[in-house]
Specification:
The complex is a heterodimer of chains A (160) and B (501).
Chain A lengths: L10 H23 L9 H23 L6 H9 L2 H20 L1 H17 L3 H22 L15
Helix pairs in contact in A: 1-2, 4-5, 5-6
Chain B lengths: L1 H6 L1 H4 L1 H19 L5 H12 L4 H26 L8 H12 L3 H34 L4 H18 L4 H16 L1 E2 L6 E2 L5 H4 L4 H17 L19 H23 L5 H15 L12 H25 L5 H12 L8 H4 L1 H22 L3 H8 L3 H20 L3 H18 L5 H23 L4 H10 L1 H15 L3 H10 L5
Antiparallel strand pairs in B: 1-2
Classes of the chains: A mainly alpha (160), B mainly alpha (501).
Chain lengths: 160, 501
Amino acid sequence: MSSESPRRPGELAFNAALLIFSLWLLWQAFSISGFSGLSTPGVFPMLASGVMVISLLAVLGKVVKRPAAHDGARAFLQKVTPSRHVVMLGLVLAYVALMPLLGFLVASGLFLFASIAFLWRRSLLVTAGISLLALGLIYLVFRVAFQVVLPRGELMQWVF
Amino acid sequence: MEFIGYLLLSWLDPSLLLLTAAGTLAGIYVGAIPGLSVTMAASILISFTFKWEVNEALALISGVFIGGVYGGSRTAILLNIPGAPSAIATAIEGYPMAKRGEAGTAIGLTTVMSVIGGFVGILALAFFAPMISKIAIMFTSRDYLLLGMIGILLVGTLSGESFAKGAFAGALGVLIGMVGLDPMTAEGRFTFGTITLMGGIPYVVAMIGFFGVAEAFVQLHKLDLPVVKQKVDRIIPKLSDVKRYFWLAMRASGIGTIIGALPGTGGDIAALLAYDDAKRATKKPEVPFGEGAKEGLIAPEAANNSAVGGAFIPMLTLGIPGDAVTAVIIGALYIHGLKPGPLMIAETPHLFWFIVGNLTLANIFLLIFGLTGIKVFTKIVECPKAILIPLIIILSSVGAYAIQNNPVDIYWMLLFGVIGYFLKTYGFQVGPIILGVILGPMMDANYRRAMIGARGDIGTFLWDFLSNPISLILLTAFLLMLISQTPLWRIVKQWRREPSS
């Protein structure tokens, strides 16, 4: 027990944030029907959020005892949210935002190209080839074989 | 003998036959490619197939399930990377065999033993499920409440770092399942006055977020793992080997089926327990354990495939999913308007026998695909993660969108994905969340039914748990499991004797 590993960077803050969130949920659960009866719609949500609060207190109790992460804030940026993750999240957000405008096919094609180019770093021609191939396969499997309705774009009604 | 017709439905209908085959083949790859999981594939497939006939959707998904549980073993043997958690033990013995140049033997033996295990599980399903559902009719609301709690408790304790984290995840899932209008009183819960939230959060979207997007972000850390190539020779195993290890496989399958059938435990745990059991039972292995013992390869693989049939037992008879994958499959059944439970076998026998027949068929395809196509396989599995991760995100987005053709669902999926990434980073498991989402509304309804049955009197309510034999057994089981996870247990153990480990 003496040689406990230090906290993961950001662990304390994350668990504390979860605790605040759970307490807020408990309050929300209480405001559904309060203590007006034992078979009201609010009882089970209160029990569940109560379990969340208690278990988080137990988790936090252990986390606090462990030594702090070395160089917390910087380690958090390096290990938990490194630039690779931030850029990917940005690409995903752009993809999701552009999909209603450009439609599924165009947006997915752009996203595939950009993210493979970013993650893989090969020649752009190879990346473009792979993106097109993957897109073609997805289209065949889902639109043609599974008959899934894919989101269409406002700007490009003429493309699918 | 009507059921034989249902049993053979997917064997005789060409399109169902094809879907089962395609599902099994796809499942082998999904299970094998590190970064793709059966749960991920099943949750994305639900949304793609929900407009299909229920039989077609089930044929594809159960194929993926059977193939996926097996597929993890291949990368475990060839690359020392378990494609799925249930193949961790396989990697311990399989990879040393591959390094000795016996990769083909290892894959062949694994395939045959997985198939044997699969059949044991399916037989148990066909035989025990009708019996259990007859008993389950006697279960009351109280018992379902307890079963739900046991399920979440087991998933919470066995996966992840600590019991408290598992309990948190399970409770979070229960709350996600509560969002929307209360089905009994039509009061809004956690809707914040918005109409979007009144319909609830679609659980398939939560599943895709937690298992697809979150996993993709976790995988971003492991982008540059080196790939080691292996030579694969003869795959078809020697008959003498199969005969020799047959009883070991049967024993492991027995363990796998039982573990699979317990609510909340699935193939991962079954494989580890069977490996441990084989290690203890084998007095003189040809090769020591840890250095490529065939016994240690066979036991976990037979066990995790037999757990598939086992996991269907509580799902179909009680409506309680055995693990995350069956929780997703139960979601698929809900979407098709089916309510798995004690009456399902009596009311829709065709569905039950169809599932049994279909799993059998998928298992046969597993034998065929497992012993062929290894050359293509080694090429595809080397697919770099840099291509795989963007693909997972695209498939997840289409999957989330396809359920209701609503772009808002993609945002939900993304939100769950990001939360899931942080939860995973800090040692919380997402499996219990999904189980909570599926079981939460069921537990809530049963709790309130039981409470109304006790006329709102807490004394009567509690006494009912003690006075009814089924409830009492389940309550004892629940309390024992709960206490074994709390500090109280350690104190009791210490008091009795000094802990050995």
